[in-house]
Amino acid sequence: MKTSFTFLAVLLLMSTFTFGQNISKKIDSIIKDNYQKNPDVAISVGFISNDEEYYTSYGKLSKESPVDVNKNSIFEIASITKILTSNLIAQAVIENRLKPEDYIDNYLPKSYILQKNLKNKIKISDLASHQSGLPDIDFAKLIELNPQQPVSNVTEKTLTSIVNNCSELIDYGKYRYSTIGYTLLGQILEKVYGKSYDKVIREKIITPLQMTNTLTKDFNVRNITAGYNPNGGVQEFFKWNITASAGLVKSNASDMLKYLKAVLTNGNPVSEAALLTEKLYYKDEKREMGLGLTISTDDQNTIYLKSGDSMGQSSIICYNRAKKWGIIILLNQRNSKMRQNLLNEIYEKVLK
C-alpha cells in the first residue's frame, strides 16, 4: 500500500509539473508573438503555478543596449506599489495598530487640519479603495512643469494644501482613482510605525521575502531597463519622493513572483494581510474593489489584479488564490492597452 501511494504521489507531481510546463509554453507563445509584432517594446513575464515558477522575456534593456531583458531586469512597477502599500496597511490592522474603519483624522501628520465637513468622515479603507472623495494631485499640470519628473514638484506642502483647503467631498463613496489617497496611506504607515515608508516596506515585505532586486531610493543598477513614452521617446524613472507609497517602487519579474508566492502561501504575514485586502470594500456596476485590488469574478474564477503605468513603463499583476496561480507582466514602454490585451489573451486562452 505504501509503495502504491508513493507511486500515485509521484504521478500527481509529474502531471502537475507537466501541466505547468504546458501553460508556460502557451504563455511564452503569446508573449513571443506580441514581441515580434512590437519589437521596440521589451517585455518580462513571470508566472507561478502551485509554487512552480516560469519566466519568459523578449527584447533589450534599451534600444541601444545589446543586453537581453531577463527575469532580473529592473522595471518601474508604478501603481502596483499600491498593493504593497495596502498589504502594509493590512499588516498594521492584524498587529492592532489601526482598523480599516478608523477615521483618518488621528493618523495624519499634524500639518493636516481637516475642515469641519471632513472630520470623522474619511475612513482608512476609503483611501485604500479609492472612494475618499478627496481632490487629487493635478498630474496634467505637473507634466507641463516637468515632463520627465512630474512628481518631483509634489511636496508635503502640496499635499497639506490640497487636503486642508478641501471643504467638501463631492464624490465621497464613489470610485475615483486617487494618488493622494495612497500617498496619505504611506504617511499613516509612517506615523503608526514611527519609521519612514522606505524602512517599513523594507522591514515588512522586501527583506522578509528576500526581494533583493526590489528598489526604493537607489535604483542606479546595471540591469535597469530604459523607459519609453507612447511615442517612443526616452522617459526617466521617477525619483523617490513623498508620493512613493502610491507608485515609486522598482522591481523585476523574479522578485514580484516572490511576492505572489508569499501571497498564495498560507501562514505568513504577507498572505494573512493579502486575505484582508481581498475583502470587498467597494462595488458598483463597473467594478469591485478590495484594498488596492480590483476583484474580477466570472462563473468559475475570482481573480485579483492591479495595473501600473509610469510615464515610460506599464505593468500588471494578477492572481487566482483558489487555483494558486499568479502572473506579472512588465513592459518598458507606457502602453496600458498592450499590457491589458496581453493579460486578457493569456487569461482567455490559457488560465481561464
UniProtKB/TrEMBL annotation:
InterPro entries (UniProt xref): Beta-lactam-related (IPR001466), Beta-lactam/transpept-like (IPR012338), Beta-lactamase-like_AB/R (IPR051478)
Family annotation (Pfam families): Beta-lactamase (PF00144)
Signal sequence bounds: 1-20
Organism domain of life: Bacteria
Keyword terms of this UniProt record: Plasmid, Signal
Entries under SUPFAM superfamilies matching the protein: beta-lactamase/transpeptidase-like
Domain (Beta-lactamase-related) ranges: 43-339
Keyword Signal included in the entry's annotation: yes
Family: Belongs to the beta-lactamase family.
Protein name, per record: Beta-lactamase family protein
UniProt source species: Chryseobacterium panacisoli
